[in-house]
Amino acid sequence: MDADYLPFHANPSKPEFKAPAGAVDAHCHVFGPADKFPYHPKRKYTPCDASKDQLFALRDHLGFARNVIVQASCHGTDNAALIDALETAGDLARGVAVVDPAITMQELQVLHDAGVRAVRFNFVKRLVDSTPKEIFLCVAEKIKKLDWHIVVYFEAPDLEELIPFLKQLDTTIVVDHMGRPDVTNGIEHEDFQRFISLLAENENIWTKVSCPERLTQQAPDYSDVVPYARTLVEKFPDRVLWGTDWPHPNMKSHVPDDGKLVDVIPMIAPSVELQQKLLIDNPMRLYWRK
């Protein structure tokens, strides 16, 4: 792994918050093992291995029932590690793939049969090279035939430029990590208000209220991120998802304790009804409907 890469927490705490039965960790990854599933030669970072067995052990430790495993950029469009994890988990996991624009419907069907239900479009410039939006639109047309949705990853300053493109995507869209707001600006800042307006005006757009560890200036407290996530959960209760982001690639500030991340959930979804929607109803409707 890279010399400055921080490995995931070796002994996360047991959460004080007890997740409801059937809860879904709707954003996590598997990395390698590299000797079996090599990392992409043009990757922007090299992580530590984070295997399917370690992921599923964490799922059980945290009191969750299911995972949505997201293909990370270090594996490029080779989804082999993802597929291997999905086949091991069976109905307890679904996947989000990254695909080559030339992928065939037959190849997409193989991914679908393994449990993939979405593709990810990454616009974070430090993680991936720029891709013409016409290519993404071509992929979107293909995956729509399988009733998949699209996961998009971007940072708040890039949203304004992306809005016309997002409105061209005629399918459900899930935005990673609340569009990565700068939490030092406050929730009234125009960047976050633009994101709220986007969701309010487009009922096909969802968001993950995940990754306080990436956004905070107050680790490991995360209280500066809570108002952002709670606002989204309360305004759009039927279009929010939550995930650990294990094994937390490219963290620089600290190594997050996954148990403490779970304990943020009742702060952002304070009622049993909101917790049920966030952790069970919404991810099950999106990923397990067929």
TrEMBL record:
Supply the CDD domains for this chain: PDC_hydrolase
Instruction: Give a single Pfam family match.
Output: Amidohydro_2
**What top-tier enzyme class does this entry carry?**
hydrolase
Q: What is this protein called?
A: 2-pyrone-4,6-dicarboxylate lactonase
Report which superkingdom the organism of origin falls in: Bacteria
One GO MF term attached to the UniProt entry? 2-pyrone-4,6-dicarboxylate lactonase activity
- InterPro entries cross-referenced by the UniProt entry: Amidohydro-rel (IPR006680), Aro_Compnd_Degr_Hydrolases (IPR052358), GLI/LigI (IPR047874), Metal_Hydrolase (IPR032466)
Entry keyword annotation includes Hydrolase:
yes
Q: What is the lineage of its organism?
A: Bacteria, Pseudomonadati, Pseudomonadota, Gammaproteobacteria, Oceanospirillales
Coiled-coil segments, which residues?
Answer: none
Write the record's keywords in alphabetical order, separated by commas. Answer: Hydrolase
Domain Amidohydrolase-related, by residue range, is 24-287
**Which E.C. number(s) belong to this protein?**
3.1.1.57
